[in-house]
Amino acid sequence: MCLFMYRPDGWVVQRAKEVKGKFINGEDHKFYQIGEKQFQDAMRFSRDNIIISNRCGEYLNTHKYFGLLNMKDDSEVSLWFIHSTDKNRYGAPCGFTSGRFGRYFLLKAIECSKKKLDSIIVDENGKNLQKGQKYVNRINHERFKNLIMRAEKICDTRYPSEIHDYNTNVMETNDYNTNIKKVNCSCEVKESTNSYANMNINKTKLYENFGDQKDNTYGTNLGITSCDVFSSKENIES
Predict the structure, then answer these.
(1) How many Å is the maximal CA-CA distance in the chain?
(2) Is the pLDDT of residue 201 over 70?
(3) Domain coordinates of the chain in residue numbers?
(4) In terms of DSSP bridges, do strands 77-82 and 121-122 run parallel, antiparallel, or are they unpaired?
(5) Alpha carbons 1 and 14: distance in angstroms, whole number
(6) CA 159 to CA 86: how far, in whole Å?
(7) Most exposed of 22, 47, 196, 206 (fewest Cβ within 10 Å)?
(8) DSSP label of 158
(9) Backbone torsion region of residue 5, taken as left when φ is above 0, otherwise alpha when ψ lies between -120 and 50, otherwise beta
(10) Predicted TM-score (pTM) of this structure
């Protein structure tokens, strides 16, 4: 990730500071734990220019949902920091990336979603089912199945980690919003009114070709970009 800003002498682009390690735990708006160290969140600046799936809270919630925190493997994530009024030496956390583990996390999400799909009964109203059984109507079942198939196709194709992160997040938001119900219970899972959660799988088409964009033209009016533009840690000025 990088930060770019306009100064009197022109545009300045700075590579964000990277902290890489095992993603242990976190709480949205409060802290994120990489390895043994916890980093406090910072809320007084905009992350709007970062793809939503790479923003701190969304990334954390997705990894929590699919059990991707503190896994007993060699997986790592990168937490990125930018200079701010924060006095600690890291600055303010602005987002996460998965790097070479993006595809691995998406495969884990697919595996989890397949188990859920196999456990759900397809029924229109639940009248013929026993009390407490979970069911979903055929339309939402097909929608969920198509989402999984799309994610599998993404895994079989060469994409940058941002695409894997994005689709893992889409798996989570749509998984949670498949309108699964329990027979004769009041604890139905309602469709979210959040516009992002209700975008369905069509939204992913917006980012199918994201990996071909090796510049930051999609975010010139804000301050942060998650595109892997720079391999050097040196600042670039223009």
Answers:
(1) 72
(2) no
(3) 2-97, 102-212
(4) unpaired
(5) 9
(6) 35
(7) 206
(8) -
(9) beta
(10) 0.74
Q: How far apart are CA 138 and CA 191, in angstroms?
A: 16
pLDDT (tens digit per residue) in 11-51: 988 888 999 999 999 999 999 999 999 999 987 667 778 89
Q: At what angle do helices 102-119 and 161-176 cross, to 10 degrees?
A: 20
The alpha-helical segments, DSSP class H, found in 120-160 are: 138-155
Tokens matching residue 104: 């691995």
> What's the chain's Rg over C-alpha atoms?
20
Distance in angstroms (rounded) separating the CA atoms of residues 67 and 178: 19
For 106-128, how does the pLDDT look when each residue is reduced to its tens digit (9 = 90+)?
999 999 999 988 888 899 888 88
Amino acid 163 reads I
Q: Cα–Cα distance between 166 and 105 in angstroms, integer?
A: 11
pLDDT of 7 reads: 82
DSSP three-state, residue 237: strand
String of DSSP letters for 16-47: PEEEEE-EEEEETTTEEEETTEEEE---SS--
Task: Give the relative orientation of helices 102-119 and 138-155 as an angle to the nearest 10 degrees.
Answer: 160
Tokens representing 38?
């916890």
Q: Is the dihedral of CA 108, 109, 112, 118 positive or negative?
A: negative
Structure confidence at residue 212 (pLDDT) = 32
For 85, counting Cβ atoms within 10 Å of its Cβ (0-12 exposed, 13-18 middle, 19+ buried), the class is exposed
Confirm if 189 and 137 have CB atoms less than 8 A apart. no
What's the length of the chain?
238
Q: How far apart are CA 141 and CA 57, in angstroms?
A: 28
